[in-house]
């Protein structure tokens, strides 16, 4: 693809923000056609501010996927995630606020106030519209339009691909003109080990219920490409941190069956992503009250 650089070329940062579980990471993964961020039906799956790069002939969109904004952060990890989302509002040329097809809650109003305070141009995407009847959307759109002068309010369903192209077209329209920031074949500035970590975190959310996914952190402690020691396979050693011994026992499972299942499914997806065979080692470690320890949170890559 040859980029049409120069006059008329659009480029800029788009901050994807909203409360937890409204479809922010699903949208970015879908628009990139690449699973960059962990997704699950459980809220607060995303913990990082993640850059995803979409390049077309006459545009380059730098999406900033963010953790869901909470109204009452409980510990340092929650506060850290909210700060990452606020950073995206500051950095973005255009805000893409995502919400669900229901009247705005207090947290939605708070997010709109943050956008308004910074006087940022914004598009509102009301996701999951396949779950409600069309007449129910009109008063919701009206309520949001009274909160802020959004450039556009677009009903969409990311999973059902309803109005997906229309949303992308609107984003491009409201981007500023400028030159591309990154090479056209680049999808993210994150290294491979970050995507591997996200795959592992997603599998934890997938295979464990209740509170377990929320008290775990995945740390990639070693990543060696084509390790001679492991027969030319990539070697990945990851530690799953938990807060209590009882949680460690759940992650491991009876006879090690739970962590074995996690490892098998994660390794398959990691190999698919890397396009190479992988030797994956998983360890579980008790790191007491890690979610309250800002130093630890930084050390493991947040």
Q: How do you describe this structure in short?
A:
This protein is of the alpha/beta class. Helix content is 36%, strand content 21%.
Word description of this protein:
The protein is α/β, with parallel strands linked by helices and 302 residues long. It folds into 2 domains: 10-173, P-loop containing nucleotide triphosphate hydrolases (Rossmann fold), CATH 3.40.50.300; 192-299, GMP Synthetase, Chain A, domain 3, CATH 3.30.300.20. It is built from 9 helices and 9 strands. α6 (192-207) runs antiparallel to α8 (257-274). The model has no long low-confidence stretch (mean pLDDT 92).
What is the rounded Rg? 20 Å
Number of domains as seen in the coordinates: 2
Number of helices: 9
Percent of residues in beta strands = 15-25%
Alpha-carbon distance between the two ends: 35 Å
The outline comes out as: globular
Helix content: 25-40%
Query: CATH class of the largest domain, anyone?
Result: Alpha Beta
How many β-strand runs?
A: 9
CATH topology of the largest domain: Rossmann fold
The CATH architecture term of the largest domain is: 3-Layer(aba) Sandwich
Biggest sheet, in brief?
A: 6 strands, mixed
What characteristics describe this protein?
single chain, 302 residues, alpha/beta, Rossmann fold, GMP Synthetase, Chain A, domain 3, 2 domains, six-stranded mixed beta sheet, three-stranded mixed beta sheet, 9 helices, 21% strand
């Amino acid at each position: 693809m040859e980029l049409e650089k120069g006059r008329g070329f659009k480029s800029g940062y788009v901050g994807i923000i909203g409360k937890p579980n409204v479809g922010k990471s699903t949208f970015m993964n879908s628009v990139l056609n690449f699973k960059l961020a962990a997704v699950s039906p459980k809220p607060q799956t995303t913990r990082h501010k993640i850059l995803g790069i979409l390049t077309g002939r006459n545009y380059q969109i730098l999406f900033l996927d963010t953790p869901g904004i909470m109204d009452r952060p409980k510990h340092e990890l929650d506060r850290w995630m909210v700060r990452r989302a606020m950073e995206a509002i500051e950095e973005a040329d255009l805000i893409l606020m995502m919400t669900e097809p229901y009247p705005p809650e207090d947290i939605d109003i708070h997010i709109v106030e943050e956008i308004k305070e910074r006087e940022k141009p914004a598009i509102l995407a009301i996701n999951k519209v396949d779950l409600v009847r069309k007449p129910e959307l009109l008063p919701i759109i009206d309520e949001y339009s009274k909160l802020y002068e959004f450039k556009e309010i677009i009903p969409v369903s990311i999973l059902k691909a309803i109005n997906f192209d229309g949303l992308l077209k609107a984003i491009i329209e409201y981007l500023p003109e400028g030159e591309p920031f990154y090479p056209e074949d680049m999808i993210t500035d994150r290294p491979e080990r970050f995507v591997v970590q996200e795959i592992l975190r997603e599998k934890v959310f997938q295979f464990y219920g209740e509170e377990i996914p929320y008290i775990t952190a995945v740390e990639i402690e070693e990543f060696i490409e084509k390790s001679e020691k492991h027969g030319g396979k990539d070697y990945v050693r990851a530690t799953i941190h938990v807060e209590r011994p009882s949680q460690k026992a759940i992650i491991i499972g009876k006879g090690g069956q739970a962590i074995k299942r996690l490892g098998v499914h994660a390794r398959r997806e990691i190999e698919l992503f890397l396009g190479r065979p992988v030797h994956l080692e998983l360890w579980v470690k008790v790191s007491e009250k890690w979610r309250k320890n800002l130093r630890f949170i930084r050390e493991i890559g947040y």
